[in-house]
Amino acid sequence: MDILSFIFGLLTGMILGIWITHIWLAYQRQESTAKLSQLFNQLWQDHFNLMKEMKHDLDNPEYKFQREFFALNKNKRFNLKRPCLAYFFDDHTTLNDQLKTLSAYGLIREVSESSDAPAKYQFNEHFVELLRGKQP
Q: Do residues 85 and 63 make contact, with C-beta atoms less than 8 angstroms apart?
């Protein structure tokens, strides 16, 4: 076996390996996207009222770049100098459990600064894209 045949075989093997890896990763991305879409559709059905309200808020141009929101009681005094999103326990009786579910799937995360302050959460950017893309 001469050196030229060895180099040709090595390069052919590397190219074939890269090509197979690319196909495999594309397949995994497609499967992952399909699973996430299925999960999102199931969560949409399970938490319809809350997620519909979230979608409505995020479709509002005033909140286009807003990613944080609060979970509050309507009678609680809360003063913030800028517009903010808030979801109320009075409107969604199982709000706490729904937020825990969304958090468990990594769609939101709690970012409260202290235990005295109201619960503050942040939307995952991919979740925002899914909500905005959802047709009600």
A: yes
pLDDT at 24: 92
C-alpha to C-alpha distances, 37 to 74, 86, 103, nearest whole angstrom? 33, 26, 17
Question: What's the residue count for the chain?
Answer: 136
Examine the pLDDT at 136 and tell me if it is beyond 70: no
Q: Which CATH number is 47-133 given? A: 1.10.10
Q: Which long-range contacts (CB under 8 A, 24 or more apart) does 129-132 make?
A: 130/36, 130/37, 130/40, 131/51, 131/54, 131/55, 131/58, 132/55, 132/58, 132/59
Condensed to tens digits (0 to 9), the pLDDT of residues 75-112 reads 877 777 777 899 999 999 999 999 999 999 999 999 98
pTM, 2 dp: 0.73
Other C-beta atoms closer than 10 Å to the C-beta of 86 total 16
Contact 77, 11 (CB under 8 A): no
List 110's β-bridge partners, or say none: 121
